[in-house]
Design goal:
The chain is of the alpha/beta class. It folds into 2 domains: about 30 residues, no CATH class; about 190 residues, Rossmann fold (3-Layer(aba) Sandwich), CATH 3.40.50. It contains 8 helices and 7 strands; from the N terminus they run H-H-E-H-H-E-H-H-E-E-H-E-E-H-E. The protein has a 5-stranded parallel sheet with strand order 1-7-6-2-3, with helices on both faces. The longest helix is centred in the middle third of the chain and has 21 residues. The radius of gyration is 17 Å and the shape is globular. The protein binds zinc ion (2 copies). One zinc ion (ZN) binds next to helix 2. Keywords: Glycosyltransferase, Transferase. It comes from Winslowiella iniecta.
């Protein structure tokens, strides 16, 4: 898939506003969960009340906003984004997250985050890839909603083992102490940005750290939420 300036990334139709990156038709066609829990983002009966899982074991964040499940076309665009640092694509993907958040905000009270931060990659992995995709998104999102972007807010102090080979409890153990918070977040509303949230153990560990440091609330913003 090659980018064409001023055209929709998906259908290649010319766009009225080229910075949007996606036409309104393709935007409406994006797959969405019919109803997802506003707190954990997993399929649920009601999209305004938290689900039974969250009532029994609340995740350490207060809200999760996402665009779609990990499926085409977003999964394909994300691969393109990760392996070719395409700025035009990052603008479009950040805009999709922001549109989802605005939409969610109409349904329920969501604080505008004072600080936006990205899930950090370990230095070695960032060096290998050349950039952190969540950082690019967080930077654009902060610009889009007038929040403070804090690129140095979190530091990954341990690389940890590859997460997807581990069970849920082993993931949590693997991540314990993996991040360090470098800024004062007392009384501030925070949004943590990642491209994909799967089990939620990484954003969960970061949210725990932020809440323990006195953050007023933590929202997780991502492009794709998977089971
Ligand atoms: Zn299109
Ligand atoms: Zn839930």
């Amino acid at each position: 898939m090659l980018p064409m300036p001023g055209c929709c990334w998906l259908c290649l139709m010319p766009l009225a506003l080229h910075q949007h990156g996606i036409c309104s038709f393709c935007y409406r066609q994006l797959p969405r969960h019919p109803a997802a829990c506003p707190r954990c983002g997993l399929p649920a009966v009601c999209r305004t009340e938290q689900c039974g899982r969250c009532l029994r074991r609340p995740p350490p964040w207060q809200a999760l906003c996402f665009v779609s499940g990990y499926q085409p076309p977003l999964s394909l665009l994300l691969t393109q984004f990760k392996f070719h640092r395409t700025t035009a694509l990052s603008v479009m993907l950040a805009r999709l997250i922001l549109l989802s958040w605005w939409h969610e905000r109409r349904l329920r009270p969501l604080a505008r985050p004072a600080i936006i931060m990205a899930v950090p990659l370990h230095q070695r992995r960032a060096w290998r890839r050349g950039f952190n995709q969540a950082d690019l998104l967080a930077h654009l999102l902060a610009h889009g909603c007038g929040s403070d972007y804090q690129p140095q807010a979190l530091r990954r102090v341990r690389a940890g083992n590859v997460q997807h080979q581990l069970s849920a409890s082993a993931r949590r153990k693997n991540l314990r102490g993996a991040f360090r918070l470098e800024i004062d977040v007392r009384g501030r509303h925070i949004a943590v940005v990642d491209d994909v949230v799967t089990t939620g153990s990484t954003v969960g560990e970061i949210s725990r750290l932020l809440m323990a440091a006195g953050a007023a609330s933590v929202q997780v913003w991502c492009l794709c939420r998977t089971l």
